[in-house]
Amino acid sequence: MKTILIATAITDDAKGQIRTDRFIPIIEKAISDAGKTNEFEQKLALAASKDDFIKKMELTKPNILHLIGHGDKLDRFVFENKGLRDYADPKTFAEVIHTNAHVIDCVVVSACHSEELAKEIAKKIQCAVGYDGALNVDVAKTYCEWFYFYLASGNTFDQIDQMLKSVLIDKGIKQDQIPKMFINNNIQKPKPMVGKILEIQILIREGEIGLAINLFMLVTDGTKFHSTATAQNLSYKQYEKKYEAGLDVRGELEGITMRFTETFTKFRKEYIL
User: Fold this and answer.
1) Which helix (H) or strand (E) holds 169?
2) pLDDT (tens digit, 9 = 90+) per residue, 27-70?
3) Among 75, 152, 214, 239, which has the minimal tally of Cβ within 10 Å of its Cβ?
4) How far apart are CA 266 and CA 190, in angstroms?
5) How do residues 116-149 score in pLDDT, each as one tens digit?
6) Do residues 139 and 168 touch, judged by C-beta distance below 8 A?
7) Is residue 66 within 8 Å of residue 92, measured between CB atoms?
8) Cβ 18 vs Cβ 68: under 8 Å
9) Residue 14 has pLDDT above 50, yes or no
């Protein structure tokens, strides 16, 4: 399952500008229209300060990061901290986001003057989207709808970029209003230690499933498989204790083992093979 973190630095809508609550249902519907509701989950960081955002990003380790807020003419993303504006310089803010580059596939910045930030982000992340100049709210909402629909439908970022441009232009949106997508296809996903993978395979063959699941949880740290591995590890330990206490939970243990081996196979195909 892919995680989308929607983070906003906006605390009010006094000027009738962009609001997070307008985007959440758009994203949900787009993913639903693609028939992939069970493959994506949304996490929220609403009216976040810079520190709040950093903590939420670290805790959720999202695959898609969507920033919603204001940008100034110096290309800075604007947070608020105790009622005061906290400006995030494009280069330094991108470096903060890069701390989770091993899990983030794409960053969408729905804010004015965010093109420079997107450029900086794309230096270490495969895809980043930003706006050149002022953001048009209606354009941003339409872009959001089709971006997530095409993403959930399984397209590459290059394909998404081309299809988005065609759809938006067909809807009468001018080229200079369309946000810029920066794609870096030279990004390589980090490869977990092959030796540990072989160790897990040996443990599985020897029937040491508890040890295999525990090691798998450690190996997947920083990947999208980690939350699943952690849950499987916890469940297996709980039923293992019940089994040791004399309860007949062999069926439950076999079920967890089967799900674990399926997850492990998917992990190997994506990160190793």
Assistant:
1) helix 157-170
2) 999 999 999 998 999 998 887 788 889 889 988 889 999 999 88
3) 214
4) 16
5) 999 999 999 999 999 999 989 899 999 999 999 9
6) yes
7) no
8) yes
9) no
For residues 144 and 30, give the distance between their C-alpha atoms in angstroms, rounded to a whole number: 9
Please, what is the average pLDDT of the chain?
88
Domains annotated on the chain, with CATH: 2-183 (3.40.50.1460), 194-271 (no CATH)
Distance of CA 50 to the CA centre of its chain: 18
What does the alpha-carbon distance between residue 71 and residue 5 come to, in Å, rounded to a whole number? Answer: 19
For the chain, give the number of residues.
Answer: 273
Structure token pair of residue 237: 């330990």
Residue where the block lists tokens 């849950």: 231
pTM of the model: 0.69
Report residue 165 as tokens: 């441009």
Distance CA 30, CA 42 (A): 13
For the CA atoms of 153, 127, 227, 27, what is the dihedral angle to 10 degrees?
-50
Token pair for residue 148? 């997530």
pLDDT at 81 over 50: yes
Assess contact for 42 and 203: CB atoms under 8 A: no
Q: Look at residue 222 and give its three-state secondary structure.
A: coil
Please tell me the predicted confidence (pLDDT) of residue 272: 61
What are 245's two structure tokens? 């206490």
